[in-house]
Input
Amino acid sequence: MLYDQNFNFALRHSILEKIIPDVDTKQIENLNRLSTIRNYFAHIGQEIFKGAELPSEGQVGIVYDPRNLDKSIDFTQLYEEFQTKEPTVAEYLFKLYQELGGEYIKG
Output
């Protein structure tokens, strides 16, 4: 069931919070942030070029943040933030998995 394409992240997240009564809220906040960053990379990327002319080869446009159209998205900063947060979140989730009886079998 967890691998069904219709079983979305929000539902998985909700189940996690219900089965782990003392869940580390900071790690869950970081998990949510990782999901947001992932969605920016997966779904946002339409560059906007100012002016009436076609952009020249190699010219970089602006990608506006859909949550705040006064800001552009800094994908480099988002990538670095993801790389910083992901290891600790993954370690935390794997620890929870093991505490709930999950096993890791190398193979």
